[in-house]
Amino acid sequence: GMDQKTIHYHLGKMAAPPNSLNSDLSKGFTVAQVAQKHGWTDPMVWSLSLEGKSDRDRFRELGWGLRTWDKWEWNDCDKRFGDEWPGRIPAQLAAHILKYFSKPGDLILDPMAGGGVTPDTCLALDRRCWSFDMIDRLETRPEIEPFTWDTSSGQQLSWPVSSKEKPDLILFDPPYFDKKAADYDEKSISNLPKKEYLEFLETFFVLMKSNVKKKTRLAFINADWRDFQHTPASEEKYKSGILIDDYLDILKRTGWYHTHIIQAPMSSQRFNAGVVSAMQKKNILGVVSRYVIILNQEE
Question: What is the pTM of this model?
Answer without folding.
Answer: 0.89
